[in-house]
């Protein structure tokens, strides 16, 4: 039995020495030190030995097991080190190579347009106000002189969530909410940019979700000429000092009188071309004097206070200013399009 243990030791150590992979080492460990290995079989036969031989064989078996285990661990450590060194060599970096330039992003064209408009109106004393995109029917329609059943509601085909909740169809509810908070106690001078939603078929000039910026100025002795002055400053800032404006009579339920504003065509300078359909003018926004009923519902005395309101679409402004021919370009996330308007 003593000779058998010595043979197993020599045999196992030779196999460990010649092994080249971690899998080979694991197979050797199982084969010699496992529960069904030859060393275990030798130990099971110790019952046939005399009392004097048992401790001698037991001690030898433990030494053989320990020698094989130490050899396995040493070889495993060596193979792991070799494998790591090989991996590091294969994955080494050439630190002398020039670095790859980092592509810097920038604001989206619509974001830039909105921020430019905000800066302009802040400079004229307007505040920026925001409101919820999921709005109540009251603030979206009724507080703006659009009671239930009013035919003008058909102009704004809406996404209703419940009978009293919907995705706002314009940002005018922010104006109604702000006036309601003030309860007729002080003037209001604000613009409210934000997303709005309407059930519309997406095409080159329409989208079911788009952006609006609406403005409101309520105070004592506000006149239509004040509205014209503000809009004239806006047009010249956004489209150039040589732009002219004109106001045409129109209808909106929340303003009276109401107007549409046109700017002179920058392509033909008002002479008439295909862009302005031969008129020399391009429609850009709507506005008017706040309807007395809207003021009254917000808590303002229409005999003391009056004001003007206006609304514009940043997408349309961007399309006119930069010659974009399809509103869908703003939402398709095509990097080729966005890079054209990237300002570093």
Keyphrases for this structure?
alpha+beta, BirA Bifunctional Protein, domain 2, two-stranded antiparallel sheet, 11 helices, 9 strands, 41% helix, elongated, coiled coil, tRNA binding, protein biosynthesis, Phe-tRNA-synth_IIc_asu, nucleotide-binding
How would you portray this structure in words?
This protein has 344 residues and is an alpha+beta fold. The protein folds into 2 domains: 2-85; 109-339, 2-Layer Sandwich (BirA Bifunctional Protein, domain 2), CATH 3.30.930. The model has no long low-confidence stretch (mean pLDDT 86). Helix 1 runs parallel beside helix 4 (53-90) and helix 5 (109-123) packs across helix 10. It is elongated, with a radius of gyration of 41 Å. It contains 11 helices and 9 strands. The strands form 2 sheets. Strands 1-4-5-9-8-7-6 form a 7-stranded mixed beta sheet. A two-stranded antiparallel ribbon has the order 2-3. The longest helix is centred in the N-terminal third of the chain and has 38 residues, at 53-90. The protein starts with a helix and ends in a 5-residue tail after the last helix.
Q: What is this entry, summarized?
A:
With about 350 residues, the protein is of the alpha+beta class.
**Class based on secondary structure composition and strand pairing:** alpha+beta
The CATH superfamily of the largest domain is known as Bira Bifunctional Protein, Domain 2
Between the first and last Cα atoms, what is the distance in angstroms? Answer: 85 Å
Which consecutive residue ranges, at least 5 long each, have pLDDT under 50? none
Please name the CATH architecture of the largest domain.
Answer: 2-Layer Sandwich
Number of domains: 2
CATH fold category name of the largest domain:
BirA Bifunctional Protein, domain 2
Order of neighbouring strands in the sheet with most strands: 1-4-5-9-8-7-6
Along the chain, the helix and strand elements come as HHHHHEEHEHEEHEEEHEHH
Summarize the main sheet.
7 strands, mixed
Residue-averaged pLDDT = 86
Sheet-strand content, in percent, reads 15-25%
EC number: 6.1.1.20
Subunit structure: Tetramer of two alpha and two beta subunits.
Domain Aminoacyl-transfer RNA synthetases class-II family profile: 109-340
Subcellular location: Cytoplasm
